[in-house]
Write the structure tokens for this entry.
Amino acid sequence: MLEIRNNWFKSWFDTKYYHILYKHRNNEEASYFIRNLVNYLNIPPNSYVADIACGKGRHSLELSKFDLNVWGMDLSSNSILFAKENANDRTEFSVHDMRDPFPQKNFDYVFNLFTSFGYFEDSGEDYKCIENIATALKSGGYFIQDYINAKIVVSNFPQNETKVIDDVEFGISKIVNGKFIEKHIHVNHGEFEDDYMERVKMISKHELVEMYSKVGLKLISVFGNYNLEKFDEDSSSRIILIAQKI
């Protein structure tokens, strides 16, 4: 069980059931958020951009629509395969673990969106990801991170539900376990039956900013939702941070 808890992302993100469960994640939402960010940051065309833990590449593809050159990376080979099938001449996708130094550097902007962070038991590995991001940025470049506001997420835990999607039954329970929010997923598909897990660390705005400061990233702005409205710890659904490499 300890191995599953520490490395759940290596198996779950690469299964077809992960993609079935989250097929409702649509490009419209991604387009709206990216448009708001690009306009707020006033990102010049032809900027060099990284999308860290990009999944199937929906945010990367939206970024490319603004004439940005985008490198997307993710640990899941299946997600990257899907992203490559939909790539254009502005996008490049690679399988890569964000805990390892990035093969590309000198980015103008680095994005880490949709809570694609906080997976690891060891907080030193979270810090290593932030350090790699800072190293990959140009001096004066920007890091944009979108994370859950755990205080709001856990306010109505535990939760239990059953979903049926494409003839697959998902039994889902959400709990708090120590410093993690855990989602336990039981998959029942015909004769196939198995259990998976997602877990994300409860990291506060203060803790994220503290990591930034250690690697030379200075906080510029904080927002609480995809409309880029002011962050409020007691009511905002997201923590959206913009930091600059100094």
User: Anything to note?
Assistant: The mean pLDDT is 94.
